[in-house]
Design brief:
Mean pLDDT: 82
Strand content: under 5%
Number of strands: 0
Shape: elongated
Radius of gyration: 18 Å
Number of helices: 6
Transmembrane segments: 7-25, 64-83, 90-108, 128-149
Helix content: over 70%
Distance between the termini: 7 Å
Order of helices and strands: HHHHHH
Keywords: Membrane, Transmembrane, Transmembrane helix
């Protein structure tokens, strides 16, 4: 069974779109955290009740999302490096294993962004985070599929 690399046009297009979605996520979470004390809403209303059982401060609430964002950054650097060096056939299983938990973390972050959006505070900022995480989740799944493609024709 011969293994072939994903079509480079699809892979590079996905990586470019992943970088764009990462920038959208960065803007969303950065603006949400920068607006922690920006209105009359309390910190608990602003973020502490969005998906967690215990009340936390606004600045502490976003630390998990920041961790996911920087994990995504490292995955994008890894994907770009693997595609640029054309070593997909050697590193495909490592990259897929690196992307799988990230995809779950992005889905979880999407849920948090949706909860913040529906709380009614900083809706446009939450929508930016939501849009970035949705785009990134879908494109991560596309990359996992592209990396997992195998040519099953006998040579």
């Amino acid at each position: 069974m011969a293994v072939k690399t994903p079509p480079l046009l699809y892979a590079w297009t996905s990586v470019v779109l992943l970088w764009i979605s990462w920038v959208v996520m960065l803007g969303g979470v950065g603006s949400l955290q920068a607006n922690c004390g920006g209105s009359g809403a309390s910190e608990l209303l602003r973020a502490g009740s969005a998906g967690y059982l215990a009340p936390v401060s606004c600045h502490r609430f976003y630390s998990y999302i920041w961790w996911t964002l920087w994990y995504d950054f490292m995955a994008l650097v890894l994907l770009s490096y693997v595609l640029a060096k054309e070593i997909v056939h050697i590193t495909r299983y490592f990259v897929i294993a690196f992307l799988a938990p990230l995809t779950y973390l992005l889905m979880s972050t999407t849920d948090v962004a949706q909860a913040i959006w529906h709380l009614g505070v900083s809706q446009s900022r939450a929508k930016a985070l939501f849009a970035g995480t949705i785009m990134s989740t879908i494109l991560q799944l596309v990359m996992i599929i592209l990396l997992g493609i195998q040519d099953e024709l006998k040579v």
